[in-house]
Amino acid sequence: MSNNIKIIVGVIVLVIIVALVVIQTSIMPSSENESVTSTPVVTQEIPVTSRMPIDVPDQPVSENILVKNVTMPDDGYVVIHALSVDNQMSGAIGNSDFLTKGSHSTIRITLYGKGGVAYKAKSGDRFIAALYKDNGDQKYGKGDLDVRLKDSKGVNIIQEFKFL
Fold it and tell me: What whole-number distance in Å separates Cα of residue 160 and Cα of residue 144?
């Protein structure tokens, strides 16, 4: 092989190397945090929940509870429980009508007490409003208290409030 051919082959190899370096540089990421991949980036969809799925403000003493807003994650009910001074929750003392999954506003719940005796409300009484899932019959009953609704983190959806 003559020297001229060796020079030409050397130049061709050099041009190919330079071309590959230029191509590689042009497809490299522009920062260290990026990566070259042919697989699309997939992010897990995080369920969106209201920061306040139930809004029951403190309110004047009444036989009715006002639920301003509630976002039901499933069909069910808002159920009211009294709280004792040692934070023990009573059985149900009031419940909403059947609510479908979704947002609802201005719900009035009549307190009914226990054993047919009306709840005797007074200033300072504390309550829990809790969300419960319907058992499928769209009628509130004891079976509906078996499944308390939870948020996306597995926490019971409740709100404490009181009579002023």
Answer: 20
